[in-house]
Amino acid sequence: MARTGRDRGDVVRLSKRMAYLLRHAPASAGLTLDAAGWVDVDDLLLALGVSRAELDHVVATNDQRRFAVDGTGTRIRASQGHSVAVDLGYPPEAPPAELFHGTVERFLPAILAEGLRPGRRHAVHLSADVDTARRVGARRGRPVVLRVDAAAMAAAGVPFARSANGVWLVGAVPPEHLAVRD
């Protein structure tokens, strides 16, 4: 692997900066995403002031595979989580019978009353496994894992999609399809 000249903390900071620009505020760095969320790699490198090797290292080592590079290697985008208008083009897909969502206890009363909503993002993010949901919830404190009855939602006609990095996406999850997992 090419040496990037950055320590782990630098890599995490660069990854967070990339996620911010590619998901929420491309214009803050003079970037323009196309309709599907792609931006030219060279433009992102210039905006970040990093080398291609550093960018490739962040993409390759990001534990959540947040970023996708197109087949030509000339464009990059965030795999999901956008608050800016993009159409990622993920086709509808039948979900597994159950999916999971990680949160923290302080949000539980509102979630159980109102369900899961995307907030400023385009979709609610769900995990196919408990461990991933627990890690996501742990970013904000002691995690609580919710079980989503995806089979019942799909049977009711709710469309699901799966992002390039395996995150399941849905518009919302009504409270009747949620349960706290033991």
Describe the structure.
- This protein has 182 residues and is α+β, with helices and mostly antiparallel strands.
- Helices cover 31% and strands 19% of the residues.
- It has six helices and nine strands.
- A hairpin with a 5-residue loop joins strand 7 and strand 8.
- Its EC number is 2.7.1.-.
- GO terms for molecular function: NAD+ poly-ADP-ribosyltransferase activity; tRNA 2'-phosphotransferase activity.
- This is Probable RNA 2'-phosphotransferase.
List keywords for this structure.
182 residues; alpha+beta; Arc Repressor Mutant, subunit A; ADP-ribosylation fold; three-stranded antiparallel sheet; 6 helices; transferase; RNA_2'-PTrans_KptA; NAD+ poly-ADP-ribosyltransferase activity; RNA_2'-PTrans_C
Roughly how many Å is the radius of gyration?
Answer: 17 Å
Backbone shape: globular
Biggest beta-sheet profile: 3 strands, antiparallel
CATH topology of the largest domain: ADP-ribosylation fold
Cα-to-Cα separation, first versus last residue: 41 Å
CATH architecture of the largest domain: Alpha-Beta Barrel
Please give the count of helices.
6
CATH C-level class of the largest domain: Alpha Beta
- Estimate nothing, just give the exact number of structural domains: 2
Q: Which sequence of SSEs, written as H and E, runs from N to C? A: HEHHEEEHEHEHEEE
Q: Name the average pLDDT.
A: 90
Amount of helix? 25-40%
Structural class: alpha+beta
Q: How many beta-strand segments?
A: 9
Trace the largest sheet across and list its strands.
1-3-2
How much of the polypeptide forms β-strand, as a percent range? 15-25%
Report the uncertain regions: none
Pfam families: PTS_2-RNA
Protein name: Probable RNA 2'-phosphotransferase
InterPro entries: Ptrans_KptA/Tpt1, RNA_2'-PTrans_C, RNA_2'-PTrans_KptA, RNA_2'-PTrans_N
GO molecular function: NAD+ poly-ADP-ribosyltransferase activity; tRNA 2'-phosphotransferase activity
